[in-house]
Write a structure and sequence with these properties.
This protein is of the alpha/beta class. Helices cover 34% and strands 26% of the residues. The protein folds into two domains: 72 residues, Hypothetical PUA domain-like, domain 1 (Ribosomal Protein L25, Chain P, Beta Barrel), CATH 2.40.240.20; 167 residues, Alpha/beta knot, CATH 3.40.1280. Helix 2 runs parallel beside helix 3 and helix 2 packs parallel to helix 7.
Length: 250
Amino acid sequence: MYHFFVDSSQITNDFKNVEITGSDFNHIANVLRMRIGEQFSVSIRDDDTGKEIFYEIESFNEASVIGKLCFIEEVGNELPSKIYLFQGLPKVDKMERIIQKAVELGAFQIIPTSTKRCVVKLDEKKAQAKVKRWQAISEAAAKQSKRAIVPEVTMPMTLKQAVEYAKAMEVKLIPYENAKGMEVTKEIIESIKPGENIAIFIGPEGGFSEEEIAMCQDNGIKPITLGKRILRTETAGFAIISWLMYHLEG
């Protein structure tokens, strides 16, 4: 069943009707060629309660589709903890794949992070254009994976700003090749409780500098290992989020 995200203003009559407009209307009417009587589900962008609302197409207007309520389901598709992925800016289009897969795995927010060894440098204008594109990728991935929310991709931050942003989070992790063995990492992961906010810091292709690692450790960010192999920047975040998903949902 096809899934869409809507604003609360598109829901009327105490959930009895929904109006689908814009690109989603075009997708329903001209790409999917759905017909009256077919069903789809929606989540509300500004509602993180986990509701999935099922509608049946009631009518087509010139620029919108009207759906009538079938039923509401409390799906609970979201992880019990919010995962914030602080991703060192990678080269070329790797960021798009990172966002897509991180959203599928359950990340709550993706924060592009500029570090010492980042090759990519974005000025304000380029950053705004990139974030707009990245946010669209996040929404598409959220639709595909039936997330209850569309994870936000923020404007890029410096590492110093990112560390400050993460201070209020209960758990802060950073993969580092010189971290202690897997047993220590297992203990850290297994100590995480559902409901705790989790920050994950991933370096760019060249990794973090020694000074950056030291700054992170000074601010309570715990080094962990990802095993004996060195993972690419576009793989490292997926590995940790997968571990956390297994632990939190188990």
